[in-house]
Protein 1
Amino acid sequence: MPIQTHANAWILETQQTAYVLGLHASGRLVHLYWGPKLPFVSDYPGDHQWTIGSRPLEEFPFNGPDMFLREEYPTSAGIKFVEPCLKTRFADGVRDTQLQFEQAEILSGAVPELRLYLRDTVYPLRLVLHYRVWEAYDLIERFVTLTNEGDTPVAVDRLWSAQWHFPLGGHYYFNHLNGRWLNEFQLLREPLIEGAKVVESRRLTTSHHHNPWFAVDRGTTTEDQGEVWFGALAWSGNWKLVAEVTEFASTRISLGLNDWDFSWRLDPGQSLSAPGSLAGYTAQGFGEASRHFHDYVRETILPHGNTPHKVLYNSWEATLFNVDEESQVHFAEIAAGMGVELFVMDDGWFHRRDSDHAALGDWWPDERKFPNGLAPLIKRVNDLGMDFGLWIEPEMVSPDSELYRAHPDWAIHYPTRPRTEGRHQLILNLGKPEVQDTLIALLDRLLSENNIAFIKWDMNRNVSEPGWADAPGDPREIWVRYVQGVYRVWDTLRQRHPRVTWQSCSGGGGRADLEILRRADQIWVSDNTNPASRLTIQAGFSHLFPAATLESWVTDMGEDFLPLDFRFHVSMCGVLGIGADLRKWSDEDITAARKWIALYKELRPVIQQGDCYRLLSPFEQPFSAVQYVSKDKTAGVLFAFLTHRLDPVPPLIVYPRGLEPERLYRIEGFEDTRSGTAWMNTGIALGLGSFSSTVRRIWNASPA
Ligand code: GLA
């Protein structure tokens, strides 16, 4: 039974774990347990009593009970100074929310759900806490819905999705992803000490700088063993994560919509839901935590599920805006000859787009470059046996564009301030329904008139002057309404064109999160395509996202010091693409590319659909390795890389993982047939010199 009740507590059990919350004698909803599943329902603990000597702590005036009770969803109420999840203001000026539990509801189904209904003690405001149990993935999904049942508006100044509590008494480490444009997903690890640590986005998108993902451990956890509590927020706009250790040594992470510059006018009868936050527990290290998320992403949220991704070519880094029918056909012919399956035309194809100074918003083919529209190019690409894909950046407008000249007021701006341009462009206010409708019409037409199989959806600047003069509610709702608008446009186009594969790009990995992956099948992880940089970017990305969502091109970046094989191997760790200037590639390069593309197609099911094991971290040393194993454990592949290291290099040993202990395997490059246990415990020695790499297939050698 995934959801049970026992002695005023609700017990949520997944395959391996349990999450328990209960109703405290004071009426508060408190967190009781999160860890391995226990044998008996009666094993789950009640709450701990805090005392000074033998007297309960709440008898002393500087510590209201809320300071040490681990509330599941604290509000700003009572004597409480921990981070609340909800802040409201009522019409009469009252600024706290005092919630009382009313009832619980358990919904069965494929994803069982516990709903807890709470209501303010004085005002007609209702809050529902939702807990969904994703049994197979050991994940709990939480979100909340706030409803104004009164007849005056309520201002919502903060609405978070969840507060996740870690077992009392521990000293924890906070692992998170940090970075910047061209260097996303860098893994950071730091001890959590008393006080609050904040990571967030204020940039309108998920951001290159931090990702709404966390993993918390007690300091000794490795890739393969140890406890990890891990989670993420499914939201593509401003978000905030607060990791807090209270003076009562209670460690918790709260996350949700960012409350910076935010307020929402909740009108009578209206509801506002916070995005979902998913979290899980494992005792098998960071690797297992990632694999839970990978399975969840592939099997439950990706629009096309486990459908394999094609090898693509894109000429952006070779041509920039300089595209036209003839030159693109030339690239397409070379690409097809190498075994490429999807030809994508990037920026530069639409009405008067010759540089980044103009044209965003005018989403029809440029008459000079494509006098007969896109059809002849697409036909040629299709005749060469490839699908055709296209780049768009729908949320943007260039001041020098027909769209802007017609609707200058559609750009996000403050009427009295100059409009700060980024890359010579402004952002359309996608909170406005008329903007959404215009984009839907323009892009629907593009997709209806052309045989387009793939769209790269880009978003190339951060926000400034976030005004909204005629906002329907509080202008600060823009942060949420904009993202809801992006979702609406994308969802509508998806629904009308269900076969199209979409990629989420925001100058690289600026919009990578669990919610965008309900629309996008894959993510353009970074504009940095230098394979040496990619090693860490891709390793960080893999903590949350599966290889099937990681588009990775072989380009000319790094060619000065990295061999082509190395560049291919790095990109083969995700969804392989090519973005190099093929006009400059020698016959040997083309032949090598053909070989790697063919091998990638063979290995693709294991890489995209199998389990990922990070064997050696590029964050820690110049020798790194990653391995993929098919779900049935009959096939695998191992990639290893050495960047610079001074000779003499000690033997480079890697220990494969994830093999079935008693099954026999062969590993490419080694003569012997050995059991999975043997390979995993004796390891394999790889002879790599500086800036070299290797790929090793792993085969089942057990008799059928
Ligand atoms: C962004 C993307 C690039 C490319 C350019 C086109 O920077 O990340 O891959 O599409 O835009 O302008």
Protein 2
Amino acid sequence: MTTSALDPVALNDGTAMPAIGLGTWGFLGARGVDAVLGGLEAGYRLLDTATGYGNEPEVGRAIGETAVPRGSIRVSTKLRGKDHGYREARAAIREARQRLGGAPVDLFLIHWPIPRLGRYVEAWRALIEAREDGEIRSIGVSNFERRHLEAIIDATGVVPVVNQIELHPHFPQAAMRASNRELGIQTVGWSPLGRQGALFREPVVASIAKRLGRTPAQTVLRWHQQLDVVPVPRSSDPRRQRENLDLDGFTLDDTEMERITALGRSGGRLWNGDPETTEFL
Ligand code: NAD
């Protein structure tokens, strides 16, 4: 049984990842570097970035400056839509690796499938070969639906280690969680706090947090962990960063888990980021 919120989660390629990560979207410039440094100091060992966030240099700088040994940090980054071709992806991986400090990238994901381009299978082949060449340690995807997962697995026989998807109580993703689990893929939840604060005002969340003697954010993050989801909450505030890591010593009971999951609603996505149509190029 997991004894700490930071205990690693096993992945299907024999590696492991921390049970919670720090989202870094919007961490730019010197303040961005400081936010990542603060996160590492608070205890985060998984940093979630993307080429499309434009902040791999900031993450790379923080990794270079921190006293935390590189070997205990895991960085996930993501391939942009415009890099989906095989050659483009291989070049993009090399460039991202340099921006992140030069070590092999711990976890490289395809950011969105963008079916209209029809090139995500080609991009997946590039990730597989970059891993074989030692440029990447583990490979996964983000925002893939079942049919996209099946397409890459059928074409290559290689199963992604993670699928990072939008996941929070307003959009609990029961079907995709089950699908990922069935395929042996670890679910990672993006915008795990629902980004805009509306979740913290939900009476259900507030009352369960009160019973637990915890904050609404801790209650929601613990809900993720009890669903076997790795959340990547974002905060640049050192107090909140620590709060979001302090998930030991309390458990939501089955009814509380169900009541939070029941907050899910159709149209619960934050900004209608439908994987079939979203074009994050
Ligand atoms: P989030 O759900 O992590 O919410 C962040 C907001 O919550 C911020 O405004 C922050 O200040 C606030 N917050 C954090 N901790 C708090 C606390 N303890 N109390 C009160 N408020 C708190 O939203 P997000 O940034 O959209 O998502 C997290 C990460 O997910 C991103 O930074 C990024 O790394 C990743 N992401 C990935 C994708 C993708 O397509 N793969 C898409 C969106 C986000």
Protein 3
Amino acid sequence: MMNISPLHYELTPEDPFSHQFHVTLTIDNPDPDGQVISLPNWIPGSYLIRDFSKHLLDLTAETRSGRQLSIEPKSSSEWVLEPTTETVWVEYRIYAWDLSVRSAHFDQTHAFCNGTSVFLSVQGKTKVPHKVTLNATDFTDEHHWRVATSLPRIDVNAEGFGEYQAESYQDLIEYPIEMGSFLELSFDAVGIPHRIAITGRFSHEKLDRERLLHDLQRICETELAMFGSPYPFQEYLFQVTVVENGYGGLEHTNSTALICAREHLPFQAGTDPKRYMEFLELCSHEYFHSWNVKRIKPRVFLESDLSKPAYTRQLWWFEGVTSYYDGLFLHRAGLITEDEYLNNLAQEMTRVYRMPGRFRQSVAESSFHAWTKFYQQDENAPNAIISYYTKGSLIALALDLIIRQATQNTKCLDDVVLRLWEQKGEPNVGLEEGEIEQICEDISGLDLRSFFDRYLYDTNDLPFEEMFAPFGMGFSLRAATSLSDKGGKTDSDESLLTLGANVIDTEHQTVKVTHVWNYMTAERAGLAAGDEIVALNAFKVSNTKSLEQWLRTYSVGESVSCHFFRRDELFQSTLYFEQSVKDRVVLSRESDQTQLRWPLK
Ligand code: ZN
């Protein structure tokens, strides 16, 4: 006989001041040999072992008749309950003090949690329905808290407290839960209801709601139109947390959790258009993931074992292609001009050309080693690795150009995405290594083995000058004109001497080195990450601006003495200036008269 009686969790935001959720879990028919329960070690979409169980407290279990059961740890995130045939009641608390989209956070202003942080998984019962009751408390009533989640509702009150149900454990962890007094807005895109719940401190009155709703709707409709019906969800939720500084998101099947800075939002006056477009790009990115990675996904992500890493070489596709499209959709949706799009793209490309690590690690390796390298970047990252997001997006761009050229603009990268959606996403079968490359060959009609060998599995730079030319586009590299130069077009014709280091201002008026590029001026002078530059040419250097001024007064071939502290020890050295490195990308339209079209059709 199959046991399909659901598991039942009750989640209570018990104490905002000690940041603790209270959770109970009822298991009918537990494993008579000793029920195993566990908490995931990672959350899908974020490839790092996070050991969520470190925040689990007060774990106890008893039978329906009230007999306390002993609990034996099996590993740091698994426990075995004393054998019983009675219904079991498990009780525990979760400490929630990580204000990020990946775990849980709870204080007097709001509560947010991912299922991977709060819900124990029950071995052998991960496929049964998982019922969740969200309980209000005196505190949440008093402060008029409501719930924002896309968990399927069974029986909830006006505030959203009550009963929900997911199909399985894997389904359950797809719906982060926000509780608080957030601002909720809504719009329809092709008839599908979309909600935005914005939590955090900002002026609700001054938010330009009309603009936000209009722009988000345009993005969602443009993406939905590309894929067409049947659409993958019946409703969608943007859960936004607004803070002083922050930028990031995590994709889920019909929602996304985002974190952003106040300046990313549009207000009736004083909106920073660049920051706001960054926010829209983030929304566009996570929304695209609804298809690309949540449904079209690597085979190893179909039913991931969340106790250990799931390795794939395909993240270049899932993050790179998504990064390529996030900005492109802003242009397709009419929210940025071609010029703005090209400049954003040039800055994105610059991030790749500034990484000498791109000659040491291929994008496929970057994906495979995401767990230890990309997600655990240190001061040597620019020299050691390449991002599967940024260089992955350049491979996506190159494929788009190649397919357009090979098919006289009758096909483009969209056709690859759509084929993947039809064959792998909609039917929910995972992708084996190499299958994406095969579909790119089918759509383009080209043998692309050497392309993927050179640019995906090896470390060569993509030949963009050559690739862009038939489209009337110019690609060039120039030297930086300031320390904060991100690439793209510039009005300045002054190029700056290359220091070969990233520097930031400190609060005590020195300049701190954060990253040193291999085999360049700073490294040759013996500077290392963490060092604080205090003087050049025996004059005090108080901030990056004055350092930049000094760099402007010297020429190639000259040198300057440099004093710096490493820990509390003073060092003296000399910076020798060489030819400036050309690592800033510029894109420009050279001709409108070409037959081949890009970025639009
Ligand atoms: Zn992403």
